[in-house]
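Bench notes, afternoon.
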Amino acid sequence: MSKTIIVTGASSGIGKAIAKLFIEKGFNVVMNASNEENLNQAFQELGSPVNAIIVSGDISKKEVGQKLATSAIQKFGSVDVLINNAGVFAPKPFLDVQETDLDRFYSINLKGTYFATQAVIPTMLANNGGSIINIGTVLVDHAIAGFPASAPVISKGGVHALTKQLAAEFGRNNIKVNTIAPGIIRSPLQGKIGVENADGLAGLHLLNRIGETSDIAEMAFQLATSNFITGEIINVDGGHVAGHLFG
C-alpha cells in the first residue's frame, strides 16, 4: 500500500516542490496551504493527480492540523509522513519588532508545526512508526548582521529544539523526527522579503550558488524513506554554515 504524506505550505516554493516529488514517487499526498485559491492553482499545475488531495486552512489553528490528519486517514487510510513546511519569514531590525510580529511568527512557524505534529502522532503510534520532517533555517546557527531577523529566527529555533525533543520522546516508537535547514533557496519567498535578485546572495554559500527547491525536496524524500536518521538538523545550504567564501 502506498504511503501517505501531508505537506503544509504546499502551494508554492519548497512545499510545492516537495509535493511534486512525492506525487511522482507514488506517495499519496495531502497538500495544505492557507490560501485556497493558490492551493487549487498549484494542484492543477501538478496535473490534478489522483494520488493527491488539497485541504486549505491556516496551520496556526489547532483544528486545521486535526483536519489534515483526519482527511489523510479518511482518503488514504494512514499518515506516514508529515512535512511541516508552512511558514512565514521577514527581516526587521530588533528594535522595530512589535508584539504582533512575534505573535505571527510564533503562531505560524512554531505553533503550526507543534499542532500539526500533535495531530499525526497518534496515528503514527498506532502504525508503529512514521517520519516527521520540519523546515527550519540555517540562520538559527549562522546569523547575518545585515539581515536582522530575530523574530522569525527564534520561532524557527523553537522548531529546531522541538525536533530534538520529539525525536527523544518517540524514538522507541519508531517515529523519526528531523529538520531540514535550508540556505538561500530560489523561491517566491525571496521576493516577499525584498530580495530582488536571489542569485546575488550566491556568495553566502561555499558552492557560490543559491539552492533550488528541488534540493530541499530531494532531502525530504531521503529522510522520509530512511529508517535510521532521527533527531538531526540537516543543513542543505551549499556550505553556508560550514565556512565563508572569499575572493
